[in-house]
Amino acid sequence: MVGNAKLEIFKSSFGKELFPSEIDRMMPHLEKVMEVIPAFSSANVQTIVNGPITYTPDLLPLIGPSLLPNMWLAVGFGYGIIHGGGVGKYLADWIQRGEPPQDLIECDPGRFSSWTSDSYVFAKSRESYGMNNAIGYPHEERFAGRPTTRVTPAYQKQIERGANMVCDAGWEHPGWFAEPGQKPEYKPSFGRTNWHSAVKREWETVTQKVGLIDLSPFGKFFLEGDQAPEFVDYVTANRSEILVYKYCDFIQIDTNLIFLLYH
Which of 86, 163, 180, 194 could make a disulfide contact with 187, Cβ separation 3.0–4.6 Å? Predict the structure, then answer.
């Protein structure tokens, strides 16, 4: 399979149609393939298939309830029906029992919002498509379409102070700060990374002295009313009386005691 991304505007009547072959647009890519696979240069091209494929900005599908009652989503699968069996069972269990059988928060349809502009979506989708066969690293960062509109007033100052920025839920925030004389470069690795000593230093600072942590990507929930403590006790594994006007980590659970989210 050889191809590149191109933005197309679809009509509402578009179904299973294909686009024109556009062989001229494909030639630079076909020539590269011929260099890598010489036998391909003498092969006869039987068919050219040029059609749409669905990609989300982060390459993961949208699975779960939509904002409309009784409307469920299972879309954005870059590899088509290969995921159908597992996703179908997952949604069927969720619809039947009212809760997901396991945590798939990474595929939550609500993870994208107004900050995902058209330019961001297209840039990230092209990046995702181009990384199909790339090596994936732990704590991987991808930079197309960034920074988003979700930057705090401290964003530029953080960069000036040596911050290596990471992106969570669209928010740009420091992953770590470079030491004096060190460049805050992104160097992914399967072993010890270039930010290991920086994180150790920052951990020692906030545990032994005083430090500030940018928690902009964290969700914030304000609960009010007489039944707020009862509700918190029901959905979390912490005691609500210690949460009044305070910050506290807690584990959220469902009725079957499946651990879901860490806040």
Answer: 194
**Would residue 11 count as lying in a domain?**
no
In a domain, 189, yes or no: yes
What pTM does this model have? 0.74
**Strands 163-168 and 171-177, sheet pairing:** antiparallel
Examine residue 253 and state whether it is found in any structural domain, yes or no: yes
Residues 171 and 200 in one domain: yes
- Measured CA to CA, the distance from residue 23 to residue 7 in angstroms comes to 17
Within a domain: 82: no
Helix (H, G, I), strand (E, B) or coil at 177: strand
